[in-house]
Design brief:
heterodimer; A: 492 residues; alpha+beta; Dipeptide-binding Protein, domain 1; D-Maltodextrin-Binding Protein, domain 2; 3 domains; 23% strand; B: 315 residues; mainly alpha; MetI-like fold; 14 helices; ABC transporter permease (chain B); transmembrane helix (chain B); MetI-like_sf (chain B); BPD_transp_1_N (chain B); membrane (chain B)
């Protein structure tokens, strides 16, 4: 009896202390699925690096806002020459790095030159390819000259891979990141969590949080109890299948937003019979996007008809081009001389959208006579076999890089797609900086891809966020994969 | 005794050499390029080559094997490709979680299993035995990740006595750290205890049928004394064997439990390293585990000699 009383008392005490901690908070524990391999956004492609550091610890000349817009950051303003080749950036003054060193134009020159150097292992080196020279005009002014006009230059400078680092700390950023942002790095318990604290000498608008801990929770099943127990207060990227467990709980907000992740059924365009347009169109008619979204993404996700996010201003709705139509698909296969169907393989990487979606797509294609053998692969295998060696027929993957329609014009890309008319549009797009003209060109590009049925366009990956109902300011959408905490605060 | 130990030692070293070759070869055959994994989809082939050079991945296979083994012998385990820190540091950090977890789980399972085994064996066929062995059967059958989730919902979500997962680090204090290891240890220990209890029971039953037990009873020793002093000691050999195997399992085989409780342990490190093709980390940790398993088996072999005097006398 006495034991029970002790246990009860302990439980009550635990309850009391945990609810006490809820009043007027300035700390936050955020759950993330993958641990960053290191903490230098300029030296790796892992999205987890940006999820912790982007906008919080590191800042660039420009930055990407919550809806994908380009905003000034360390550059207060800029002027573009008439020929579109010279960008003169006016920098904020009085900015300091977290180690106390001053930020000025020489840091910008250092960062950009470092990223585009011959021995650079920046994962997005292409962002800097158009830069010819970077010149320091005075400590608060930097002039970037391009080899040719580049429409997306200001956007490119807002990527996590283009953040400004200091020569004094660039080499040690992997372990101890030093940036100019409102939060500074405090500690990293490997495999467990990364902690940021408010930076006292921040140049911009002060942030509300004093401390933010990113805790690594790899298992979706573990995320729900972590939320329910209050250990973790926000999962900005939550598993869509687990939403049902927290949806009706008033303590939490479930926020469904958009991402830049075009989820596609990629097709090897050079491999027979997929080199025939009719076959690819038959696949497009055979796909029932609604069923795929329901089964692979818990009904969340917007159907797409080409390679563009529906949240983008340049988006053209092409989902009506190939409505789900089994008869039409069979007819097209007949035209291609394949009325008896054929066999092919479908390689599936680990994410659930691919593994679940793959089963559904296989059964949809079986209805039109295409017999798919499903081969599950790990990421490392996928990159090796599918992406690098192009040894595949079909695969499912989400291309999460923003504004990446140009991948279809890349030589030797794993789609094996080659269309000079499309390449011409992309080449023109690269030289255009006027937004209206860019959107027209992007629209044409989308139409060509849809007409050619280059790949099976499925849906835009949703961003499913779940967090404490009292928490405000987290991003609803994910124009880039980041957890910008600069506007996050607890309401009373 | 000395000959017995020497023989064990020679076998252990041969196993180590063989294991190092197999581990290295198998991982090198695995498809997947760590440099490409780090650089992602947008990097060019030239850049991937550059990074491969920087990581020393372009050297000939045999050279790399010798370099690795040479490093191991001088206790230099190399640097992680992805974390770019010495592997030994990673291992040390992770061991601070995995080792205590394994020890607590092992202790728990022994403390539960031996008395249950004794109880069941001494009441063979009666109701108590049936219930205990039924429970053990259930313990073996229930998947430990499900059991772990039930523990989390009960003790962390509902009662809020312990955290739902994570590890605050020993620097946060001994009690908070231990508290976060409690549920995982229980989740790990119960299935192990179930197996151990069954082994202990059957070993004891076999011993209890021996003539000397009847003799001991016949000369008037109380049942309890016979059970603890004569029977248990002789039934220890199979129990110790299983314990040795379980320890190895607990150190390495905790991947699932470490994921459910998101503990930064060794199992998760290996898992993560495999998916990221951080080969040097996988190779070195697997070798460490091989050493640990061999060492534990050596200890078990030696402890046989202690519980069984016949082995001690043998030359």
């Amino acid at each position: 009896m006495k034991l029970w009383k002790t246990i009860l008392a302990a439980a009550l005490l635990a309850l009391a202390t945990s609810s006490q901690a809820y009043a007027a908070r300035t700390d936050l524990v955020i759950g993330i699925t993958l641990e960053p391999p290191h903490l230098d956004p300029t030296a790796g492609a892992a999205a987890a690096i940006d999820e912790v550091l982007y906008a919080n610890v590191f800042e660039g000349l420009t930055r990407i806002g919550p809806n994908g817009e380009v905003l000034p950051d360390l550059a207060e303003s800029w002027a573009i020459s008439d020929d579109g080749k010279v960008y003169t950036f006016k920098l904020h003054t009085g900015v300091k790095f977290h180690d106390g060193t001053d930020f000025d134009a020489s840091d910008v020159k250092f960062s950009l030159d470092r990223a585009r150097a011959d021995n650079s292992v920046n994962a997005q080196k292409g962002l800097f390819a158009a830069i010819d020279t970077v010149d320091v005009v005075d400590p608060a002014t930097v002039k970037v000259t391009l080899k040719n006009p580049q429409g997306s230059f200001l956007y490119n400078m807002g990527w996590g891979d283009a953040v400004i680092v200091a020569p004094e700390s660039a080499e040690t950023n992997k372990e101890k990141p030093i940036g100019t942002g409102p939060f500074k790095f405090q500690s990293w318990a490997k495999g467990s969590s990364i902690t940021l604290v408010k930076s006292d000498n921040y140049w911009g608008a002060p942030v509300s949080l004093d401390k933010a801990e990113f805790r690594i929770v790899p298992d979706a099943a573990a995320a729900v109890p972590a939320l329910l127990s209050g250990d973790i207060q926000a999962f900005p990227f939550f598993d869509p299948d687990s939403v049902a467990q927290v949806k009706d709980d008033p303590r939490f907000k479930v926020v469904i937003g958009s991402t830049e992740g075009e989820t596609i059924l990629a097709i090897n365009n050079k491999k027979p019979p997929f080199d025939k347009l009719e076959v690819r169109q038959a696949i497009a008619f055979a796909l029932d996007r609604k069923a795929i979204i329901d089964g692979a993404s818990a009904g969340l996700g917007v159907p797409i008809g080409s390679h563009m996010s529906p949240a983008s201003k340049a988006y053209v709705d092409l989902t009506g081009l190939y409505p789900h139509n089994v008869d039409k698909a069979k007819e097209l296969l007949k035209q291609a001389g394949l009325e008896n169907g054929f066999k092919a393989t479908l390689k599936l990487p680990p994410p659930s959208y691919a593994r679940l979606g793959g089963e559904i797509i296989a059964s949809q294609l079986r209805d039109v006579g295409i017999d798919l053998e499903i081969i599950p692969v790990e990421w490392a295998q996928w990159l090796d076999q599918v992406f690098t060696k192009k040894d595949y027929d079909l695969t499912i993957v989400s291309h999460t890089e923003p504004n990446d329609i140009d991948i279809y014009s890349r030589k030797d890309y794993y789609f094996n797609y080659d269309n000079p008319a499309f390449d011409k549009i992309i080449a023109e797009l690269n030289l255009t900086s006027d937004d209206a003209k860019r959107n027209t060109l992007l629209g044409e590009a989308q139409k060509i891809l849809a007409d050619d049925a280059v790949v099976g366009f499925l849906y835009e990956l949703p961003k499913v966020g779940v967090w404490d109902a009292k928490l405000q300011g987290l991003w609803e959408n994910a124009p880039i994969q980041a957890n910008d905490l600069t506007k996050v605060k607890w309401s009373e | 005794m000395t000959a017995y130990l020497l023989k064990r030692l020679v076998i252990a070293i041969a196993t180590l050499i063989l294991a190092s070759m197999v581990v290295f070869a198998v991982l090198e055959i695995l498809p997947g390029d760590p440099a490409r994994l780090m650089l992602g989809l947008n990097a060019s082939a030239d850049q991937v080559e550059l990074l491969r050079d920087q990581m020393g991945l372009n050297a000939p296979l045999v050279l790399r094997y010798l370099h690795w083994v040479g490093g191991l012998l001088s206790l230099d385990f190399g640097r992680s490709y992805t974390y770019s820190v010495p592997v030994i540091d990673l291992v040390r950090e992770r061991m601070a979680v995995s080792l205590p977890l394994a020890l607590i789980a092992l202790a728990l399972s022994t403390v539960i299993a031996i008395p249950v085994g004794l109880y069941s064996a001494s009441r063979r066929g009666r109701a108590g035995d049936t219930i205990a062995m039924g429970a053990a059967q259930l313990g073996v059958a229930v998947p430990n990740f499900w059991f772990a989730l039930m523990l989390i919902y009960l003790f962390a979500v509902w009662l809020r006595l312990v955290p739902a997962g994570g590890f605050p680090g020993w620097s946060a204090g001994v009690w908070p750290a231990l508290k976060s290891l409690l549920l995982p240890a229980v989740a790990l220990a119960l299935p192990q205890a179930a197996i151990l209890a069954r082994v202990a029971r059957s070993a004891l039953i076999e011993v209890l049928n021996e003539d000397y037990i009847r003799t001991a009873r016949a000369k008037g020793l109380p049942y309890r004394a016979v059970l603890w002093r004569h029977a248990l000691r002789n039934a220890m050999i199979p129990v110790l064997t299983i314990l040795g195997l379980q320890f190895a399992f607990l150190i390495a085989g905790t991947i699932i439990i470490e994921n459910v409780f998101y503990l930064p342990g060794l199992g998760r490190l290996v898992f993560q390293a495999i998916t990221q093709r951080d080969l040097i980390v996988v190779e070195s940790i697997v070798m460490l585990l091989v050493v640990a398993v061999i060492a534990v088996n050596l200890v078990v072999d030696v402890s046989y000699a202690f519980v069984d005097p016949r082995l001690r006398g043998r030359q």
